[in-house]
Structures are given as C-alpha cells and as structure tokens.
Amino acid sequence: MIYGHVDDTFRYGDKIKLNFSSNFFAWADLSGLKEHLMKHFEVVGHYPESEPSSLVKLLADHLGVPDNTVMITSGANEAIFLIAQLYKNWASIIPQPTFSAYEYACKTFDHLISYDRKNDLDAMPEDRIYWICNPNNPTGNVLLKPLMNRIIRQNPRYLYVVDQSFADYTLQPMLKPSEMVDCYNMMLIGSLSKKYCIPGLRLGYIFSSPIIIDRLRQIRQPWTVNAMAIEAGKYLLTNNPQMIPDLEGYLSEAQRLRQELTDIEGIRVLKSDTNFMLVLIDFAETWELKQWLINNYGILIRDASDFRGLDNHYFRIVARTKEDDNQLVAAIREFKKWKEDNP
Questions:
Q1: Does pLDDT of 2 surpass 60?
Q2: Whole-angstrom Cα distance, residue 249 to residue 257?
C-alpha cells in the first residue's frame, strides 16, 4: 500500500496550521468550479460514462492531438499502475530518488527493477521501460526538453514513461503532446488534478500512440473516473482558469525560501526548478524536526526518508506565502537552537 507519497495532514486532526508538505498551490480560486458543480450535482445520481469519451475529446482538443492518443485516468496514480500492468514482467529502470508509485506499481506486476546503477543496466533485458519524473518529485529538478526529446527519439528500442504531473509548476519548457504524435515509444502522464489544484477529484491522463492507448483501455476497469470528476474536467478544460495567477512570482518566492534555509548552518537545499524542494538537515533526524514543528507551531513538512536513496535527514517542503515561509525559517532556526541547548 502507498501511504507516504501524499501529505499526512489527516493524522494530526486540527493541529496543522501551515501545511508545507503538499506540492499543490494552496490558494487556487475554485469558486467558479464549485458553482458549476453545485448546478450539476444531479450527475452523482447516475452512472458515469464507463469510458469518459466526452472528456477525452475536450482534453485532446486542449492538447492539440487526436482523440485516440489520449486516455483519462483516475489521477496520475491509475495511469502509472495501468502502464505497469500492460507491461507486466518487463524490466523497468527507475532512477532514484523519485516518486515511489513507480516502484510500487512495477513490483505489483512483477517487473525486474533497476535503480539506474550501471552494473544493473548492463545486465538488464532489452525489453525495458525508463520511468522519468519531470519535474522530479521530490527534488524539483527538471531535465531540459531538448535532452528529453533526443533521448526518447534516439532510443526507439526502449519505452519511456515521462510523468509531467508538475509541468504547471515550473517555467522550464516541457514536452508537448502535439510535438510528439510521431513518437511511438513514449507514454506521457499528465495531471489535471495538479494543473487545476483539485487533488480530491483525481483526474490524470496518458498520451501515447493509438496502439498503446487502445491496449491500455482493454485492461482498465470500467467507471474508474467518477461522474463529478468528469463534470469538473469538462468545466475546467472548457474555461481553462489560471489557478496560479503569478507563477513567476510564486517561483521567485520559492527561490527566496531556498536561500533563507541555505543560510542556516547545517541545512542544505537541493536545486529546484519548481515550487517544492528537497532539504538535508545535518543536526537532527527528520522525524524529530517534523514532530517538533507540529507540536510547537502546527507546521507540517514532508518526511522524505521513505524515498529510496534518501535517509532520515531529508525532508521536502513547498513554498507558500512570504509570511508563511518566514515562519517556517524562524521555526527551524528556533529548533536548531533548541537542539543545541538539549544535546
């Protein structure tokens, strides 16, 4: 079971006042969507489309690709598990650290897994899938679009799953489905949940060749995307509201937060091209910092020790407002002083 890859606010009741653990933009204006869903609430009294074709058409038009190259899923997570199921018993290359669902899915369907170590790669079968999270979770770094395009096109023997769920949280150029319709060895995962800040409605998609999409549809269960999610998706793709009003300003604040944390002795923050970042703390274990922040300030961070390749000194945070971010920095400084006074 996957417990660790989302924020665990639910564990702490009303203790949490500032949530730095979830990578979503926290101030999206969902009022228009809410009003629309209330007017169409009757959809919950009927079965949804077993295959949400009406939403697929809207998404395909939005992406500028043929309908038969797109599949709507119940979040990016269903997309990941469907791909792993379709290629059951294949070899999978999963560079670390990265989103843990790739490994869970591949283990569920008996993949031979390499974590991108050279000795492993030399011994891996030719029938293999490379799983690439871009922007990467938990680090926030982005592989350049020309590099991604070249790797995929120059290696047609391999399959590539490119998860661009956080594409709307970076200014770096991403692969566009409309530019990849002639590329038959790639499956691109996208997330409407993240783009429109609606994680509770679970809307993701896969873009790939018509043959792969058809094979994926043959193995999926019917009605995995619920009626309310389909109605929300129709509204959002038709109106395409800008959920992050000032992405450049938001990312600028993320870089300011990164520098403020870096200025604390014993803290190192990895480079990030997104609103979230991976942090290494030398003077304490993450669980201790996390519990102290909850107990004293109601601040929640993401313990990143369960990501493969990381240990119990790593945590991930997301940028919030300048005021909130300053509270986090001040709290960590106070925790450091507390540790020094209580060795």
A1: no
A2: 12
Global confidence as pTM: 0.93
Give the pair of three-digit tokens for residue 112.
Answer: 């031979």
**Residue for token pair 């319709």:** 181
Name, in order, each residue with C-beta under 8 angstroms of 46's C-beta and a sequence gap of 6 or more: 227
* Span 247-273, pLDDT tens digits: 999 999 999 999 999 999 999 999 999
**What are all long-range contacts of 310-313, with beta carbons under 8 Å and residues at least 24 apart?**
310/97, 310/138, 310/278, 312/285, 312/286, 312/287, 313/280, 313/281, 313/282, 313/284, 313/285, 313/286
Helix axes 75-86, 101-108, angle to 10 degrees: 40
Q: What is the pLDDT of residues 51-110, one digit of tens each?
A: 899 999 999 999 999 999 999 999 999 999 999 999 999 999 999 999 999 999 999 999
User: What is the distance between the alpha carbons of residues 322 and 182, in angstroms, rounded to a whole number?
Assistant: 44
Strand order in the sheet with 314-318: 267-269, 276-281, 314-318, 302-303
Beta-bridge partner residues of 241: none
Which residue, among 98, 66, 141, has the nearest Cα to 308 in the 3D structure? 98
